[in-house]
Amino acid sequence: MVRGPVAAAAAADSSPAAAGRLLLVAPHGSYRTAPFIEAAVARGAEVVIASESRYALASPPARGLYVDFGNQDAALARILDEARTRPFTAIIGTDDSSTELASRASSALGLRHNPSEAVRVARRKDLARERLAKCGVPVPWHRRIDLQLPLAAQIDGIPYPCVLKPVALSASRGVIRADGPAELLSAVARIRAMLSEVVDAQERHHVLVEQFVPGFEVAVEGLLEGGRLRMLAVFDKPDPLDGPFFEETYYVTPSRIGAGMLAQLERRVDQACRAYGLCEGPVHAECRINGQGVWILEVAARTIGGLCGRLLRFGTGQSIEQLVLAHALGDPVDVQAQEGGAGVLMIPIPAAGILRRVEGVMAARQVPGIEDVVIDVREGYELVPLPEGSSYLGFIFARASGPAEAEAALRAAHACLNIVVAPLWKAAAAASAAGGAVTQI
User: Fold this and answer.
1) What's the CATH architecture for 5-113?
2) Are 439 and 417 in contact (CB under 8 A)?
């Protein structure tokens, strides 16, 4: 690893802060920020948050550094100016929208990093597909649609079923399956509305269309160290994800797909990382497995979303944030596998409207194997389901003697919940989520 003069100055300073001064580059409101702060404080590191909001953090243990994500050059200059005053020993981008800036800053300061072009390719679904195809990694048929041009010629010859995706949104937002031309045009209209406030013109005016890949879906949490991929955990997604929207619910580990398929999965994710040019830090991969093998849906240069990182404690003995931070600071990454099974349910948004209350939380917590039930949305807040929404109602965590038992506990706990939603005046939205009752008033 190459280190620049600023990093060398930090290493030469014997003070505790200089030996562990972390910059988190995070969008305002990111749910990944708090776990990274917790991991950094636990090891005595100083934390600075680079964010768009001047009021993102107003209290210890972290302080804020205002940057404008819409002006990457100015944001980089602001970070480098701060580093000249007091050097950083590690820089971590928490979310897709901040990883490229974190990479550029790390490169300028001689800290561990991925090439910024590799991070950009991983973040952009259209560029990722082009790079994988160029490097011989199997990809489905795909095409990029320009929303500024007439659609008729662009959608001619598209195979159905297909999936439409914004090129840079995350958390399954805007991902819609279409089984024919009418559904495709409807999906384009919905996605166009979602992209209206996106700053980047390329990302605002383009949509990726690709052939639907059937199969069983898994997620991989990994860590790259000098170009070598270490798989930290593989999560099964036992609920079918066939559309029309692709809301993730259950994650269960360890995977039950078998040793041979696990090895093939690791090879395919490693192949994708090499194709993108990723070489350092966390990777979160989504893959489909069918009779033709393993298909890459995406490989992101960041950690898993939400509170799901808690599951990494089961598989490794440490949180994913602790492992990523240790790697960024150049410390050994210690992984200790544990017995049994664990899982999380990302509680889906059952209907559009205003959350009145969630009933049955106590009963859900009393289900054998359930470790915690966390409701993230406060009463009185608006609920927005997919494909427009990008968040979950909360999380249910389970730990049991095996993955099947953990999954059963999660399903039993979810069935205990009754989510009471008041419809908005602007829309009478109603939809049910499997496993949980919904009451609208």
Assistant:
1) 3-Layer(aba) Sandwich (3.40)
2) no
For 330, residues 6+ apart whose C-beta sits below 8 A from its C-beta are: 1, 112
Q: Which CATH class is domain 215-338?
A: alpha beta
- The per-residue pLDDT for 429 is 41
Residue 278 · residue 118 · CB < 8 Å: yes
What's the N-to-C CA distance of the chain in angstroms? Answer: 59
Q: Mean of the pLDDT values across residues 75-92?
A: 95
What is the mean predicted confidence (pLDDT) over 74-98? 95
Q: Which residues of 181-216 are buried (b: 16+ CB within 10 A; e: fewer)?
A: eebbeebbeebeebbeeeeeeebbbbbbbbebbebb
Give CATH for domain 141-211: 3.30.1490.20
Instruction: Decide: pTM greater than 0.85.
Output: yes
Assigned token pair, 198? 């996106």
Name which residue leads in pLDDT, 197 or 296: 296
Measure the CA–CA gap between 283 and 220, rounded to whole angstroms: 8
Reported as half-sphere exposure (CB side, CA atoms, 13 A), residue 297 has a value of 25
Domain with CATH 3.30.470.20 in the chain: 215-338
Token pair 């209206």: residue: 196
Q: What is the mean pLDDT of residues 358-373?
A: 97
User: How does pLDDT run across 116-154, given as a tens digit for each residue?
Assistant: 999 999 999 999 999 999 999 999 999 999 999 999 999
Helix (H, G, I), strand (E, B) or coil at 312: helix
d(CA 185, CA 155): 9
Please count the helices (runs of H) and the strands (runs of E) in the chain: 15, 20
